[in-house]
Amino acid sequence: MKKIKLIFAPFILLPVMANAADGKLSVGDTAWMIVATALVMMMTPAGLALFYGGLTRKKNVLNTIGMSMAGYSVATLAWIVIGYGIAFGKGDFIGIGKIMLSGITPDTVKGSIPELLFVAFQGTFAAITIAIAGGAMIERVKFSTYLIFSFIWTIVVYAPIAHWAWGGGETLNFGEMDFAGGTVVHINAGIAGLVVAMMLGKRRSYGREAIKPISPIFVALGSALLWFGWFGFNAGSELAADGVAANAFIVTNVAAALGVLGWMTAEYIVYKKPTIVGAASGAVSGLVAITPASGSAGVGGAIIIGFIGGVLGLLGVAKVKKLFKIDDALDAFWVHGFVGIWGSIATAIFIADYAMPKNYSLASQLISQFEAILLTVVYSGIMSAVVFYISSLLTGGGRVDDETELIGLDEKTHGEEAFNL
Question: What is the pTM of this model?
Fold first, then answer.
């Protein structure tokens, strides 16, 4: 039997060996990327939906969860129709072509995986970005306005920024290091959410009564699902099953764990009580912070990046937010935008020796990171305002009426209750 196996071994391995040699389709990379895509998909309608749903109030739980699910769906449609072509088509400022994925067949290869799989993977990034932004505007934005906003925003805001960072755009590519979406996803989503929250205005009860999370259990479970899915988010961004993906996997885990410890430590110093909601938020903060550096930082850097990310998350939510007096309902900017800026800067500082290019200059790279951050803030801020204004006009105003806000969007918009007790 052993002799038979040895005789046929070269033929069994032939496809894999050929793929590795000719740089075309890799069965191993394809298998890993299918798993990674499924992991990232789970993050939005499951992980983020529960995380955000648990943070809101009883009368708006289903609406908040629905914004994640429906936002994911609308963004997916926008991505397939034209978003992918803008992000990854040929061109400097924006990509051109590939409308409705024209020219892409099951045999088309991107790197070492089918391009259709690459489309699906990148589409999950576009979808979670708009869902993250939705956390800033919950409890008072019209569901119809949010859906229209999600569709247009994915095309007009997300896709161009993705093109500049990853899609080959040269006009606005500053040489930024963003392995898995520090600027493209987190800073972009945080700024968009903050701008729309400003345009909507504060909730009627904001500052007048305590607004407590309906379910810390949902929050903890949602953060755990996000943590799990983030392995696909970061390690999958290598687009291959190799050592860089393994590095991204382990530093993602380390940074998330240190984010928990950083938030809880800061929370104990400030409030003398570390909370489970805080621990869950700390995990997300650590994950956000490590995202752009996950392909280049070592475990030592991940410890620092994650811990500081957790501390900054708590300080942003508990202290800095009060200075701005903007009703960012679920702290989308402070956990994603504010911490995301730290992560982008830290990417230049904590690059591991084995990932450092020749003639690497910290000063030069920091300038590149700041330029990319500034571009993202300005473009996303201005265009998000324009897109929301248009979306509001199309729906007769972007904010729900006073009665709907008082009774709750679950009952008035969806005709349902989250808990039929």
Answer: 0.93
